[in-house]
Structure formats: structure tokens, C-alpha cells
Design a protein that fits this description.
Keywords: Membrane, Transmembrane, Transmembrane helix. It is built from 3 helices and 7 strands. The chain has about 150 residues and is of the alpha+beta class.
Length: about 150
């Protein structure tokens, strides 16, 4: 069994992002409350607006922080699994008929796996050199699979 797992390069887990948001909001709203008690109530309004915007941005970040792509070659089956936010999808390909290539020549070219009319693009979280290495590794692994 051969497996390749690719994930986003994220510096914060969703739990850490929630902690950062809580600390930031507490500090912002605490300072705004002091100004509100001194008569500058507009500071509180802007602090709430800022906390809402930061919360929305961190929510979007957290939804995609755990995104991944996984390629698994096992028992005559090539599985390509995607997790994007709350959605997960799995594509099952026949490894004996699979062709692996790079789509295009630019920096945004993805790894393409084709088999019997199905086409899957993967490698979104890899650098161009890592994508090239993935293509080579997949081709080596697929060479050992025979038509049965």
C-alpha cells in the first residue's frame, strides 16, 4: 500500500484560532467599554464591528484549516480523497489504466490522474517542485500494477 497525504500549511488549528479570537475580542471590547463609560459610545460600536469582521475571517480560516488531499494505492484500487471545508469526496480509479501528468507548465499546474474517462486534479497544497516529485512517485508506484 502506498499513500500520499497533502494538507494546507496552516499556522493555527481551529481551536487555537478560537482562542486567539476570544483573547483579541476580550481586549478590544474591554478597551471599548472603558471609552464607552467615559462617554465615547461610538468606540464600542466600532469595536463590535471589528470583532465581528475578525470573527468572520477566522471562521472562514478555521473551516479550511484542516483541508487535505489523500492518494492511496491499495489492492488494485487508486483512491483520491478530498476534504474541502465540511465536504469530503472520494474518487475511485483503476490503477492499471491510470495516467499521471502535470496539467500545463505554469506555477499553478496541478497533478492530473486519468483512468477510463475519469479525470482527477490534485496537488493544490504542494509547491511546483513537490508536484513534480508526486508525479514521479505516482508513476513509479503505478508501474508495478499490472493489467488483470
Amino acid at each position: 500500500m502506498a499513500e500520499w497525504r497533502m494538507k494546507r500549511n496552516c499556522s493555527l488549528t481551529p481551536r487555537q484560532a478560537l482562542l486567539v479570537y476570544a483573547l483579541l475580542s476580550a481586549a478590544t471590547l474591554g478597551i471599548a467599554l472603558v471609552f464607552t463609560l467615559r462617554g465615547a459610545w461610538m468606540v464600542l460600536a466600532f469595536a463590535v464591528l471589528e470583532s465581528t469582521a475578525v470573527g468572520a475571517a477566522l471562521l472562514h480560516y478555521s473551516r479550511h484549516a484542516l483541508d487535505y488531499e489523500r492518494i492511496c494505492l491499495q489492492d488494485g484500487c487508486l483512491l483520491v480523497e478530498y476534504a474541502n471545508g465540511a465536504r469530503t469526496s472520494v474518487v475511485r480509479l483503476e490503477p492499471a489504466h491510470a495516467r499521471v501528468s502535470l496539467d500545463g507548465a505554469g506555477l499553478r499546474s496541478l497533478v492530473v490522474i486519468e483512468a477510463r474517462g475519469q479525470r482527477v486534479e490534485t496537488g493544490r497544497f504542494l509547491t511546483p517542485s513537490q508536484r513534480l516529485e508526486l508525479v514521479r512517485a505516482l508513476r513509479r508506484a503505478l508501474r508495478g500494477v499490472s493489467l488483470a
